[in-house]
Design brief:
mainly alpha
Length: 383
């Protein structure tokens, strides 16, 4: 017994040393994995491309549908609400975001600036000179959307945040005119590849965090309200003139009490559980289908199509690039000669013959050599 007690401190010390060594290896591996994830390649290029397209279409759709009433809603005809003299929002008081406010009294200049904003929204959608166009679109959009606080909604805040984060990302790397231009050899780049990758992936992380904050906080806020707790929250807005834009559809979805309660409670559950359901592929599919159905319901039943379209576009960043590529091949394959290989296969064949045209793509031989070199390193040091 005495000998056991004498050896106990040494055994405890060995266990503590082993624990610290294991924790050190875990921390080192986590650091190397994070470094590789942030610096090696740009993530979610196709998802962000779809986000760019739908964000642009949101701007185009909102501007076109309000074109006939632009002066009454945002221009000189909106002077009745007092915001031309004293804006409710702080943005028009900042010179950078006051362009529409400065010309609000001149219908011709206001319309000209309105058309310019519409043209920039189209350029964002198609990805034409994206890095140059986006800062101008960002400034003019905020200047326009903050002209009348009464017609805004919370989607405007999310839209601004997405535009701001896209300044640091590369949403035009796929499915854009810029992508075609970059496919040419010797395309000049300003930032080193690793710096560009870092900014892109950090913007993606920030956008993911923002989406999670919005859904989780919204779900928790709803859970604390009495109408949501008793399952009747969906019924009330659909019965109002402002949000019950389709009375027949509103009656269809609210005539059965169980359906009203299921939609009310289901929206809370899907919003709160959303970040956890992203962790595995099967639950991620369910989460995305659920949250997109939620937004489609808002867009159709409550008459908020542009808010819903923007949020759906943002949610597409959670779909993997491999899924987007397979979907693209399926859609293109429906109109392609059966003898032609899929586009992704042709692209890989071209890279083997001519070398990688994209500075972000890796040479397969170089990748093999890199893996062999990493395998030769001691455990915990291979990135």
């Amino acid at each position: 017994m005495a000998s056991l007690l004498q050896r106990a401190p040494r055994a405890i010390g060995s266990l503590i040393a082993l624990l610290f060594k294991t924790l050190g290896q875990i921390a080192a591996n986590a650091w190397f994995w994070t470094e590789a994830w942030l610096l090696d390649t740009k993530k979610s290029l196709y998802g962000l491309a779809v986000t760019r397209i739908l964000i642009g279409l949101t701007g185009v759709g909102l501007l076109l549908t309000n074109f006939s009433s632009r002066l009454y809603t945002f221009g000189s005809g909106s002077a009745w609400n007092g915001e031309l003299a004293e804006p409710v929002s702080d943005f028009p008081k900042i010179w950078l975001f006051s362009w529409f406010h400065m010309v609000a009294g001149n219908d011709a200049l206001f319309t000209l600036l309105y058309i310019l904003l519409l043209a920039l929204a189209v350029a964002i959608t198609v990805g034409w000179r994206f890095k140059i166009v986006l800062p101008f679109y960002f400034v003019l959009w905020i200047s326009f959307i903050e002209m009348n606080d009464a017609v805004g909604d919370q989607g405007d805040n999310m839209y601004r945040i997405v535009l701001l984060l896209m300044l640091f990302a590369d949403p035009a790397a796929r499915w854009s005119f810029d992508a075609r231009r970059r496919a040419k050899k010797n395309f000049p780049t300003i930032l080193p590849g690793e710096i560009s990758n870092l900014l892109h992936n950090l913007a993606l992380v920030a956008l993911t965090a923002q989406v999670i904050f919005v859904y989780t906080s919204g779900g928790l806020f709803k859970a604390g309200g009495k109408p949501w707790q008793n399952g009747s929250a969906v019924y009330t807005p659909l019965m109002t003139e402002r949000f019950g834009t389709w009375p027949i559809l509103s009656d269809f979805f609210t005539h059965w009490g169980f359906m009203v309660a299921a939609i009310s409670w289901g929206s809370i559950i899907i919003q709160i559980a959303f970040p956890f359901m992203l962790l595995t592929r099967p639950t991620r599919i369910v989460a995305l289908l659920g949250i997109m159905s939620f937004h489609i319901g808002i867009g159709v039943l409550m008459g908020l199509p542009w808010f819903s379209l923007a949020m759906i576009g943002i949610d597409f960043i959670f779909i993997r690039d491999a899924t987007w590529m397979r979907t693209s091949d399926l859609l293109v394959g429906a109109f392609r000669d059966e003898a032609d290989p899929p586009r992704s296969v042709r692209a890989r064949s071209a890279e083997r013959k001519e070398g990688p045209t994209d500075p972000q793509e890796e040479d397969p031989d170089e990748t093999t050599r890199g893996e062999a070199a990493r395998a030769s390193l001691p455990a915990g040091y291979a990135k």
